[in-house]
Design goal:
The chain has 523 residues and is mostly helical. The chain contains 20 helices and two strands. The longest helix has 37 residues.
Length: 523
């Protein structure tokens, strides 16, 4: 019996979806010819994902050149925060729009908007303009991230979804390694504006492939014209912007207990209440109540929100540890982190051999349990240690998280029909992004507290000097090592929270839909 057949015994039946996306007029059950027909669409999805994946890594290496040309050092962090805010708050909106009007128009619009933002960024005349244009990029990036993941689930039946998800994970892995190198080369030997212009040919090819090869299924036209919940979209956007601004800037631009922080947090709480009221009354809500009423979706949202929180430890704090404690250069420090992105897609690609036998929930439980134990091993590393030691931990962590994340995404997408898959996928990605923002704020506060205590309340700017210069004292290096140790313990705690959600909230077996009738709403 094949993997799809085994899946019938443990996670539900997998069959050719009756509402699957078509490529060149051929449905997804047409065998080898149809698999070849999917190739251009898959290539377009990978190119679209590459636009979003390369964005942060390629820009980060060019920051010194950008600041030297445009100025604005005190606000340059908004180059990343503004983009992150725009992506996060638009994910639920694009998810609902893709369920209402189809994936293709939403993805095409997202790519076009991203490319317009890229072109504007290349022509920015000062830092304020560049930040504003980065927000425009983020508005397109929200459509890219959510819709690409949704189309990937539409294209493949349950038994084959790990293959496309592994390819998309590989895009992130390659981007993590290639992005800094490409950004550094362009900034050093061309001009920093080329890091935005390079998006144009990549996006143009993706646009052409999607427009030429992606064919969505014909659906019964509704009796009434679909209504867009613009009040709900605006309320979600406003609430998310205030909350994420408070989390991203709190403790950096202003103290946590200052008037700006309290005002933003209080305003976001009020707007969240407004969102609940508006969405309850809307005929077609942007964030429908069933996203949280259905036990499986709610559990995956919470579990992947904890994953976003957990991921802050390696992605934000490990490079600082590698440079200031281990004495590595920026490129070598990046490779210590990048080994995680090498094992993650391999583990994800092989995860279907596990969850088709024991189920989505059990596989994710194994993955997050291993991840928690691996994270707890980090504080046990000797001081100062050798570079291969944290690299080995990151390699193992990537393997564990591949077993955790992919089964949850594939599983939750398989519990809903076509008309709900975009909203479901967007809610999962939204929660992961919010978890990442919360983690950055929480772990940043923890690290600053430990550093301040170890350094006797000294100037924390000395940490930055330790990273960029070879002047750090042993006391400072030990303080950084202790701060990162505490952050990794916090990340292990996030893994424990995710484990508790899987144990006590997630159902033992995901209610996978019978895919020939996958457009019927799940109960």
């Amino acid at each position: 019996m094949g993997s799809a057949g085994r899946a019938a015994g443990s996670v539900g039946r997998a069959a050719t979806p009756g509402t699957a996306i078509r490529v060149n007029g051929t449905g997804t059950g047409a065998g080898a010819a149809e698999a070849r027909g999917r190739g251009p669409v898959v290539a377009a999805l990978m190119l679209g994902m590459a636009l979003a994946a390369l964005d942060g890594t390629i820009v980060s290496t060019a920051v010194p050149q950008i600041v030297g040309d445009l100025g604005g050092f005190s606000v340059f962090s908004w180059l990343f925060s503004g983009y992150l805010l725009a992506v996060t708050v638009t994910l639920p909106v694009y998810g609902k729009l893709s369920d209402t009007f189809g994936r293709k128009p939403v993805l095409l619009a997202g790519i076009v908007l991203f490319l317009i933002g890229s072109l504007l960024c290349a022509g920015a005349w000062n830092m304020a303009a560049l930040i504003a244009f980065r927000v425009v990029q983020g508005l397109g990036g929200g459509a890219l991230q959510g819709t690409v993941q949704t189309i990937a689930a539409d294209l493949y039946p349950l038994g084959e979804r790990p293959r496309i998800q592994a390819r998309l994970s590989t895009v992130w892995a390659v981007s993590a390694v290639a992005g800094p190198a490409i950004g550094g080369l362009l900034a050093s030997y061309a001009h920093w504006r080329w890091i935005f212009l390079i998006n144009l040919p990549v996006g143009a090819v993706a646009l052409w492939l999607i427009a030429r090869h992606l064919r969505e299924p014909s659906r019964t036209r509704p009796a009434a014209r679909p209504r867009i919940d613009w009040p709900g979209a605006l309320a979600v956007f406003a609430a998310g912007t205030l909350l994420l601004t408070a989390l991203v800037q709190g403790g950096i631009a202003w103290p946590w207990l200052s008037v700006p922080s309290l005002a933003l947090l209080g305003g976001s709480a009020v707007l969240v209440a407004v969102v609940v009221v508006v969405e309850r009354r809307a005929a077609e809500p942007i964030i429908p109540g069933w996203v949280w009423r259905r036990r499986t979706i709610a559990a995956v949202n919470l579990a992947l929100g904890a994953l976003g929180l957990l991921m802050v430890a390696p992605t934000v704090f490990l490079p600082t540890y590698a440079q200031s404690v281990l004495g590595l250069g920026p490129i070598a420090a990046g490779f210590v982190l990048s080994v995680m992105t090498l094992s993650w897609p391999v583990s994800a690609a092989l995860s279907n051999r596990v969850y088709t036998r024991i189920g989505f929930r059990q596989t994710a439980i194994i993955g997050i349990t291993l991840a928690g134990l691996i994270l707890l091993a980090f504080p046990l590393l000797p001081y100062p240690g050798e570079p291969w030691q944290p690299a080995l931990i990151m390699l193992l962590l990537g393997g564990a998280l591949g077993l955790f994340q992919l089964p949850l995404i594939v599983g939750v997408q398989s519990t809903v029909g076509w008309s709900e898959r975009g909203t479901t996928t967007a809610s999962v990605l939204f929660c992961r992004q919010v978890g990442q923002s919360i983690g950055a704020a929480l772990f940043g506060a923890i690290a600053n507290g430990v550093l301040s205590a170890r350094l006797g309340g000294g100037d924390l700017d000395s940490v930055a000097r330790a990273v960029t210069r070879d002047e750090s004292s042993d006391e400072l290096r030990r303080a950084v090592a202790a701060a990162v140790d505490y952050v990794y313990v916090g990340a292990a705690t996030a893994a424990a929270l995710s484990l508790l959600v899987l144990l006590f909230v997630a159902p033992r077996r995901f209610p996978v839909l019978d895919e020939p009738n996958a457009d019927a709403p799940a109960q």
